[in-house]
Amino acid sequence: MTEPGDIINTGLRGVPVASTRICLVDGKAGKLVYRGYNITELAENATFEEVAYLLLFEHLPPEKELADFKAQLTQKTPLPGQLVAALKTRPANALPMDILQACVPMLANHDPEAGDLSREKATDTAIGLIARFPAIMAAWHRIRNGLEPLAPKPELGHAANFLFMLTGETPDPETAKFMDTCLVLHAEHSFNASTFSARQVASSRAHMYAAAAAGVGSLSGELHGGANARVMQMLLDIGALDRVDNYVESRLKAGEKVMGMGHAVYKNGDPRAAILAPMSRQMGEKTGNLKWYELGEAVRKKAAEVFRELKGAEIYPNVDFYSATTYYAMGIPIDLFTPVFAISRISGWCAHVIEEQFAGAAPKPALYRPASEYVGEYCGPEECEFVPMEKRPS
Ligand SMILES: CC(=O)SCCNC(=O)CCNC(=O)[C@H](O)C(C)(C)COP(=O)(O)OP(=O)(O)OC[C@H]1O[C@@H](n2cnc3c(N)ncnc32)[C@H](O)[C@@H]1OP(=O)(O)O
Ligand SMILES: O=C([O-])CC(=O)C(=O)O
């Protein structure tokens, strides 16, 4: 309950609700840091497996620990047969993010220790979820196309294996590297909506699977991870450079959003977009089709110009803007763009669940329970008197 004069922070923008050692998002400086390491350094030098390890275990892995971690990922990747059988009963037009979200509690069903709330178990479940998210999405894509799921190849890295399990072809090293970098860039982002959802569920001491399923649901929305698919749909709708100005102007003037632009925290640009932009161009060059990169650039410039005119402020592309054209050039189906985000972000969610439940920095995490202002009805000055069914107006 609120008191008169209380300020209502819809969206909790800028309201600190926890301390975290996992990630710094510095909106003013346009800086992103995972456990002390700048994202630019990580994108250039680290693999997704190293980053996932860093997020979960709080340090970069020495060689042997990384080898063990990769072996655990490979060992945990195969899906329970009954889960694959269940996927075969789903309608082919089911949304992939719904499929992914539904599979998370199914994995819990097949884990006899799901209810073990120890830190060791949470870490083990985390590795299992990181291993299986790509397997679930690749299996689902093949099943909906009438194909059998594929087992991973132990000699491939996480990113390359996802592409292999999806397409049945081992990706070329450059494409595999780009996908790996995309996974590094999407792994973590402090208290974004999906991570907050996962932490909020974990704060009730629910298990890792319950928190991860909440994360998937939150990420699916078009204002969050779902924006990458919406960016590509927008570019396809526009279709040609000479239609960009009209499309962007009419959208912004009607008070509608240009997807992939703007950010709740970065007001001077998203550092991940700066890394992804050249990757999107290079993937376009590699496939001999720069059309979507160039169309994106035209949208970005026009949106910034019209936004400045309308609001007197700058707007920049976010991580979802260039990942869209990068994935499209890689041949990833549009409805799998957001699942690719989830395949990476599961590592951040898991690190946050562990922090929330076992490793919180001071002040110690608490069950999330914000307040709300009641603006509903009373019947006069008092609560309403209960009306029996026969006396209610029809
Ligand atoms: C991984 C991620 O989740 S990154 C974000 C992915 N989402 C998108 O790309 C969807 C498009 N972008 C947006 O909707 C927004 O930029 C958000 C929700 C991400 C962040 O919004 P915020 O900056 O926190 O706040 P807010 O919604 O108040 O934006 C400020 C103003 O800019 C406008 N604005 C922000 N982004 C956009 C946009 N992409 N297109 C048009 N207008 C926009 C808002 O409508 C608002 O206008 P108003 O003051 O007249 O109401
Ligand atoms: O932090 C946010 O609000 C959204 C975001 O960029 C992310 O989750 O990667």
From TrEMBL:
Active site annotation, chain numbering: H263, D320
Keyword tags: Acyltransferase, Transferase, Tricarboxylic acid cycle
GO MF term set: citrate synthase activity
Keyword Lyase: no
InterPro entries for this protein: 2-MeCitrate/Citrate_synth_II (IPR011278), Citrate_synth-like_lrg_a-sub (IPR016142), Citrate_synth-like_sm_a-sub (IPR016143), Citrate_synthase (IPR002020), Citrate_synthase_bac-typ (IPR024176), Citrate_synthase_sf (IPR036969)
A Pfam family it matches: Citrate_synt
Pathway: Carbohydrate metabolism; tricarboxylic acid cycle; isocitrate from oxaloacetate: step 1/2
Catalytic activity annotation: oxaloacetate + acetyl-CoA + H2O = citrate + CoA + H(+)
Tree of life domain: Bacteria
Record bears the keyword Transferase: yes
GO annotation, biological process: carbohydrate metabolic process; tricarboxylic acid cycle
One GO CC annotation: cytoplasm
Similarity section: Belongs to the citrate synthase family.
PANTHER family with a match to the protein in the record: CITRATE SYNTHASE, CITRATE SYNTHASE, PEROXISOMAL
Name this polypeptide is given: Citrate synthase
Organism: Desulfosalsimonas propionicica
Upper taxonomic lineage: Bacteria, Pseudomonadati, Thermodesulfobacteriota, Desulfobacteria, Desulfobacterales
